[in-house]
Structure formats: structure tokens, C-alpha cells
Design goal:
The protein has helices spanning 7-39, 50-56, 59-92, 98-106, 113-124, 129-136, 147-171, 175-183, 188-217, 220-225, 232-242, 249-274, 293-320, 337-345, 348-377, 381-391, 398-408, 421-443, 448-456, 461-472, 474-489, 495-498, 506-515, 519-550, and strands at residues 323-326, 329-334. By secondary structure, the protein is an all-alpha fold. It has a two-stranded antiparallel ribbon. The longest helix is centred in the N-terminal third of the chain and has 34 residues, at 59-92.
């Protein structure tokens, strides 16, 4: 007896099966092998918990855990404290130039954070430009290295994670809630504090959670600024590179601890939100508040100051890349020698960066868009499972996933190490959540009756999806493609573990230059990465503007 599958369920079931197969092979399987490595002895033969007791018994690694958590918590608190007033000003106050501010404020999300870290070193390091100027003025300046510098870079680069969802939440608050509070005698300031902020708290916490997760998994920033301070992601990389035994047990332990820490934070946030009610009936969007000229000027200055400070490191990198470096020493003379040195060696790293970003963006789109459509349109237990698995890469550090790839695909039925495909697959798995979330958001806005009408007229579900749904999703798909492209082009944590000789990328060139004394080469590589990531954003902006004008 065969079980007939309803015609309308075949497409979502096929997408679900293929999605789980892809994510199972290239996400769950590598993570399982990382977990297995942490429970096996050095030879990979016997089960043991000795790896955990040995690692957690060492003060050095306990300090690494505390440093990572402490820096992450400090960066999250400071970032949130800066971003929430910023979001309120853009959403509710008459700040001029909001569109420009918002566009510039989003740039740190797609520019590599370790480039910002290196710029901070060039400006505020021991021989930095600002440091030497302060010393010439007999002004003492402490070291930018260590926890303070790392928190500073995280704050400047990660605040958009809190800013963007909080702006949307402030704009979605039901104005009748505020009017009721003020009708009961509450002042406008008290109303914002006691009514508005609690309503937008889920959005604030969601952004803060992303900031904290990013601080846990970030490799590039602590690599540049931590010096001798042990940090989770960096130590996992060092352990993996340094382990000569067949089983990377020590690196596996740190990888598992990193995943468990992230999962614990996710569970705490979910439990907190589930115990409280935040929903309102948003019948009318809140108006722009009427404020005095002084407060308006202060809010405008506040917004532009944060945007300017966040972009200073990237502007500094571009300017310094055209100056002369003799070893690590900067000379204020205009020069193209840094770019000549970068591209005289080989154009291969730039070609690899463009190739990998394009292939990963294509793969992410082909995998993530159908998954986003399926988990939104079809409610079932298996679709929920697919949604959870597709979101899991958000909680996995690139270094940990890369270690899992090496352990999983270095031998056996599928050997990928040493080639370019392992990099493309690792990037694709890490960025799948971008496509899933952007596609899902668009599908929510598409009336299902359009698909029902198409099917009733004789089109198959697959034809309906390709000819009706995909064109309507095109804006969200393009946004996901660009976001994937620019983040892959600036990816470091997975790349530095997985690349082999001929498959270096621009970020690896910069990484290796920073390890040596090639400051000029590093600035040229960093400037190239910045330009490479900005070009598709500008192209997308032009396409969106052209589309909007055509609709008028």
C-alpha cells in the first residue's frame, strides 16, 4: 500500500527534504563531529570527559571564557545604551536628514569589523597618528589594546544590530497607549520610559542578542587588539592549528563551549520574553513629537556624532592606504606603492574574493529562498524543524564551523579540504539565515490567494512559485543576495581555517600582513575590501530607486 502525497504538499515536502539534506550534511554533521572530537581522546578512539576537565581546569582557558563573556556583555550594554536613544530620535523626533543618517548608520553591518580594528590601531595604537599627536601635546594616552579597544570596535561596528529593529519597533507603537498614559497625568518623558520602552523591549533585546552573539564568535577584532589577552574564538583557532594529534580534542572543547554559551543566551532571552506580554493593537502609528529647537539640535548632533565616529576608521583606512609605509612606520607622503605591492604579487586573492562571494550568494539564494517560502507558507512540525535548523548558523562561530568542516571532509566519503568548494559551502551555510529571513519577511506580505488562483487555473505549485511568487519576492531576494555577497567578501573567521595556498582571499592577505610587518599592504587590502563591499550596495540602491520611480 502506497501513501499518496497531496499534490499541493509535494513542493513544500520536496523543499523541506532537500533543505534538511543540505543543512544536515554541511551544518549538523560538522557540528556533530566537533562535539564528538571533544568527547574522544587525542587518538580519536576512546570516549572521555578528560578533555573538558583538562581544559576547564586550566586558569588560562577559564580566563579566556571570562574575558569573552565580560567583553561581550560590556559591548552589548554600551551598544544598546547608545543605539536606543539613537533609534528613538530617528523614529519619533524631527531630526533633519534622517534618510542619510539611516543609510550611513547601516554601513558598519556590511564593512569588515577587523578592518575597523586595524584602523583603530593605526590611529590610536602605540605609534598611531592620534597617539603621537597627543604625545606631542604632552597628553597621556592609555593603550588601545586589550578589552577597552575591543569593546570600542564592537560598539562602533555592531550598534546597527540594535538600531534598526528598535527604529521599526518605535514606529509600530500604538499611539493610543501613549495618549492613555498622558490622559492619566503622565508626562511625555515618563510616558516614554514607562509605556513606550517596555513595548519595544523585545526588539531591543533581539538586537542586543545579535550583538552579544557576534562578540562571542568574532575572530578578527580580538586577533588585532587582544594581544596577550586570551579570547574564546582566537584560542580555538590556535588550538586547532597547533594540535598534531589526529583528533582536535582541545579545539573541539572550546567549540562546544562556545556553542553552548550562545544557546544558553538564546534560551534565556526566549524565556524572558515568553513570560511577558508586549503586544498592542497598532491602529495608528505614533506621530513625530513636537520639541524645542535646543532638543532638536541635541538629537541631531547625537545621531550624526555616532554615525561619524563609526565611519572614521574606514575613512582613515582609505586615506592611509595612499600614504607611504616603511615597514610598520607611516610617513605622510602620498604614494600608490601599497596598491602596487598588493597587486604586483598577484590578482588571485581579489579574483578569489569576487568568485567565492558570487558563488556563495548564488548558493545561499537557491537554498535559502525556497526554505523561507516553505517555513512561512506551510505550517507543520517538519517545517518548524527546518526553520530552526536554518536559523542555527546564527549561533555558530565561523571558526567552530570551519573546524567541523575540516574534521568532517578531510577524509571519508566526501573530501573537500584543500579546494575552493569547501570555502563556498562554509560561507553558504553561515549565510543561509540571511536569505531565509529576508524571503520569509516578503512572503508574509504576499497574499496567498494569488497562488491559489494560479493553481486553480492549472499551473503546478512549482510553476506558481517560479512565475508568481519569485517575481514578487525579487526585492527581498536582491537584498539577501547583496547582504550575503558583502559579508562573504569580508569573511575572515572561517576563511583563515579553511583556505589553502592558491585560494587566499583579500581578508587572508590582510590577516597575513598584520601577522608580519606589512602595514602598507594591509591598508591597501583593507581599502580594496571596503570598495568591493560598497559597490554592490550602491548598485542595489540604484536598482531600488529605478524601480520606485517606475512605479510612480
Amino acid at each position: 500500500m502506497t501513501l499518496a502525497i497531496p499534490h499541493g504538499k509535494r513542493l513544500p515536502l520536496a523543499i523541506t527534504a532537500l533543505g534538511l539534506l543540505f543543512l544536515g550534511l554541511f551544518l549538523l554533521y560538522p557540528l556533530f563531529n566537533v562535539f564528538s572530537a571533544s568527547l574522544l581522546d587525542a587518538d580519536g578512539e576512546k570516549l572521555t570527559l578528560a578533555n573538558y576537565t583538562r581544559m576547564l581546569g586550566r586558569p588560562f582557558y577559564r580566563t579566556a571564557i571570562l574575558n569573552t563573556l565580560g567583553i561581550g556583555l560590556a559591548a552589548t550594554v554600551i551598544t544598546t545604551a547608545l543605539a536606543v536613544p539613537f533609534a528613538f530620535a530617528l523614529a519619533r523626533l524631527p531630526v533633519p536628514g534622517k534618510s542619510a543618517i539611516l543609510a550611513l548608520a547601516a554601513l558598519p553591518l556590511v564593512l569588515p569589523s577587523f578592518v575597523s580594528a586595524y584602523a583603530i590601531v593605526l590611529l590610536l595604537g602605540r605609534s598611531g597618528i592620534v597617539t603621537r599627536w597627543l604625545q606631542s601635546c604632552d597628553i597621556g594616552f592609555g593603550s588601545i589594546y586589550g578589552a577597552g579597544g575591543i569593546v570600542l570596535v564592537y560598539t562602533l561596528t555592531l550598534y546597527p544590530y540594535v538600531l534598526l529593529p528598535t527604529i521599526a519597533a518605535f514606529k509600530a507603537v500604538d499611539v493610543s497607549m501613549e495618549e492613555a498614559a498622558q490622559g492619566l497625568g503622565s508626562s511625555p518623558r515618563r510616558t516614554v520610559w514607562t509605556v513606550t520602552l517596555p513595548i519595544v523591549l523585545p526588539a531591543i533585546l533581539a538586537g542586543a542578542l545579535l550583538v552579544f552573539i557576534e562578540t562571542l564568535e568574532n575572530f578578527g577584532v580580538p586577533f588585532v587588539l587582544a594581544e596577550d589577552m586570551p579570547i574564546f574564538a582566537v584560542e580555538a583557532f590556535k588550538l586547532f592549528i597547533g594540535e598534531t594529534a589526529p583528533n582536535p580534542a582541545s579545539a573541539g572543547v572550546l567549540g562546544v563551549l562556545l556553542i553552548l554559551t550562545t544557546a544558553a543566551v538564546l534560551l534565556v532571552q526566549r524565556r524572558f520574553l515568553s513570560a511577558r506580554r508586549f503586544a498592542t493593537n497598532a491602529r495608528q502609528a505614533p506621530p513625530i513629537l513636537k520639541i524645542g529647537r535646543g532638543l532638536q539640535a541635541a538629537a541631531t548632533l547625537y545621531c550624526w556624532t555616532i554615525v561619524f565616529l563609526a565611519l572614521v576608521p574606514f575613512l582613515a583606512i582609505i586615506v592611509l592606504s595612499f600614504m607611504e609605509f616603511r615597514g610598520p612606520v607611516l610617513h605622510p607622503n602620498f604614494s600608490l606603492a601599497n596598491f602596487a605591492a598588493l597587486f604586483d604579487r598577484s590578482l588571485r586573492p581579489l579574483f578569489n574574493t569576487l568568485l567565492f562571494a558570487s558563488l556563495a550568494a548564488l548558493c545561499v539564494t537557491l537554498v535559502g529562498v525556497p526554505i523561507g517560502y516553505t517555513v512561512t507558507r506551510f505550517r507543520s512540525g517538519i517545517a518548524t524543524l527546518l526553520d530552526v535548523v536554518a536559523t542555527l548558523p546564527f549561533a555558530v562561530a565561523g571558526t567552530v564551523l570551519a573546524i567541523g568542516f575540516v574534521v568532517s571532509f578531510n577524509s571519508g566519503f566526501l573530501v573537500l579540504t584543500g579546494g575552493p568548494l569547501i570555502l563556498v559551502l562554509a560561507y553558504s551555510v553561515r549565510k543561509v539565515p540571511f536569505a531565509v529571513r529576508s524571503a520569509s519577511a516578503i512572503v508574509h506580505q504576499i497574499d496567498a490567494s494569488l497562488e491559489e488562483a494560479s493553481v486553480s487555473l492549472g499551473r503546478s505549485p512549482l510553476q506558481t512559485f517560479l512565475r508568481i511568487v519569485v517575481p514578487l519576492m525579487l526585492g527581498g531576494i536582491l537584498s539577501g543576495v547583496v547582504l550575503t555577497w558583502v559579508t562573504v567578501a569580508s569573511e575572515l573567521s572561517a576563511t583563515v581555517v579553511l583556505y589553502s595556498g592558491p585560494w587566499r582571499t583579500m581578508t587572508v592577505v590582510m590577516f597575513q600582513a598584520l601577522e608580519g610587518s606589512g602595514a602598507g599592504l594591509a591598508t591597501a587590502a583593507a581599502s580594496t575590501v571596503i570598495v568591493v563591499t560598497l559597490v554592490p550596495i550602491l548598485l542595489l540602491y540604484r536598482l531600488v530607486r529605478r524601480y520606485e520611480l517606475s512605479m510612480l
